[in-house]
Amino acid sequence: MPPDAGERCTPTDCVLGSWASDGNDFRLLNDGYCASATKTSAERSLMTAPNSYTAPKFNGPNFHCPHCQVFAEQGWGIPNRVVSYGAIQRNDGQDNNFKISRCSSCGLFAIWVDGRMVYPLASTAPHANTDLPDDIKADFDEARNIVSLSPRGAAALLRLCIQKICKHLGAKGRDINDDIGTLVGKGLNPQIQQALDIVRVVGNECVHPGLMDLKDDVETANHLFGLVNLIVEDLISRPKHVSEMFDALPEKKKKAIEERDAT
Question: What burial letters (b/e) apply to 204-223, b meaning 16+ CB within 10 Å?
Fold first, then answer.
């Protein structure tokens, strides 16, 4: 178990990634004390996952682990040995561009270079809403697979997904601004329209669906993943669930409702 606040951690008990041994190739954090020393073990055990997916983020204190998919606290450290020109050399601890995080739930590592996770190659993005049409889901899944290596490519695919969703829901599919306006008329939350403006799907600085934008980064792509799922939830999943609930009613009650609404 990790030590409580102020206790020294050892290679055998620290699951948060701040080790006190050269054999573990990790530089000490917090003057030799556990990186989790700001929380007691009781406080760590009370961590609860948010309602939505939290993507892995460089230096993030907690997020959904790319290995076990559990929302968990993450420990961060800097390796004290690096390989340079084929030789193992000591790291002076100043190279903050190369860091390692370790999940407090499963204990597995993630490797980050220049702010990007390079291991594991598993996607950091949420899965598609199960009600997303299959032809659009293929684009969504491709964006998931490349977001760590090419966030601009992922963002371009996700804007294309949004255009395809608009067309699937009856919009013309020619002008994204008009299409989103049509969806708001069909019940899409206006706040989602505002969020789409922020990530340049609509508005004065909108990017044409399918084209790359030099301004896009991983954070922008992650917002787009969430917005695609929100649009599907608002306009496909929720009406579907309500319809399924109505269909499950006894025929007598359904007939009474239909007769009431006809008057």
Answer: eebbebeebbeebebebbbb
